[in-house]
Recover the amino acids of this structure.
């Protein structure tokens, strides 16, 4: 059993048996200041407490392994040899599948997946019957060493400088950059259809957007590599629409996405030079 304490995305119903209200620096379950009200659309804005921030909702999501029952000794042995990275990643994947299903069911584009760092706490433990159903446990440990899937920081680049250039309109964001980021998230969250289609769109956009100044930017060879991957990526994307991805096609998508990301990093590195 794994428990993740996370800030609930917009519109998402409670993921676990209890929703805790807390304030930074305060204890879970702390009540809002006297007189404070939750804003309801259509009503006039309400005064806020000048002494501190408003309460923050925190949801406890409990992922329960419904495998065979185990006695306390067996469960304790499992907990002692726990693979924190594997258990934490698996639990987060379950929660993100729930959020993905909710996003589609509610047609809510603002309901988004959760990154590992969004969790207030991640714990693994075991318990019995109603104890587990209510989010409790007999024994649990904090997965403090769980790294989770991390973003791909562009080594050697300076994000702050690029951010300043984007905000100052000295550089424009590319559609292929946003598409590649979305495809990467879909790939890591186990959404093969969205990942394959997103990679196809990112590749097509990259060939158009980067092709205009490929010679000046020194990206001709990289764009030639992307063109060679194009047919395989299109085939993989089409395959997901009728029957899903094979493992070989998933590798094609992952490889192509990695080459798109490498091309974008190369472009950013060249653009950062004086």
């Amino acid at each position: 059993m794994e428990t993740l304490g996370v800030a609930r995305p917009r519109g998402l119903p409670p993921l676990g048996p209890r929703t805790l209200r807390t304030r930074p620096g305060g204890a879970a379950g702390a009540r809002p200041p006297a007189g404070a009200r939750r804003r309801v659309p259509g009503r006039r804005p309400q005064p806020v407490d000048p002494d501190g921030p408003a309460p923050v909702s925190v949801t406890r999501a409990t992922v329960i392994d419904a495998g065979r029952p185990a006695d306390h000794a067996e469960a304790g042995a499992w907990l002692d040899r726990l693979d924190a990275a594997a258990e934490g990643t698996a639990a987060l994947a379950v929660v993100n599948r729930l959020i993905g299903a909710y996003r589609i069911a509610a047609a809510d584009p603002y309901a988004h997946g959760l990154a590992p760092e969004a969790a207030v706490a991640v714990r693994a433990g075991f318990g019995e019957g109603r104890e587990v159903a209510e989010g409790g446990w007999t024994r649990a440990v904090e997965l403090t060493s769980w790294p989770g899937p991390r973003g791909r920081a562009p080594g050697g680049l300076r994000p702050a400088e690029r951010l300043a250039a984007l905000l100052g309109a000295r550089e424009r964001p590319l559609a292929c950059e946003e598409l590649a980021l979305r495809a990467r998230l879909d790939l890591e969250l186990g959404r093969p259809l969205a990942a394959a289609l997103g990679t196809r769109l990112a590749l097509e956009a990259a060939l158009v957007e980067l092709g205009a100044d490929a010679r000046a930017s020194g990206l001709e060879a990289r764009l030639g590599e992307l063109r060679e991957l194009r047919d395989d990526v299109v085939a993989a994307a089409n395959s997901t629409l009728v029957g899903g991805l094979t493992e070989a096609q998933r590798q094609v998508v992952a490889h192509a996405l990695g080459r798109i990301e490498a091309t974008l990093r190369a472009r950013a590195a060249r653009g950062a030079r004086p």
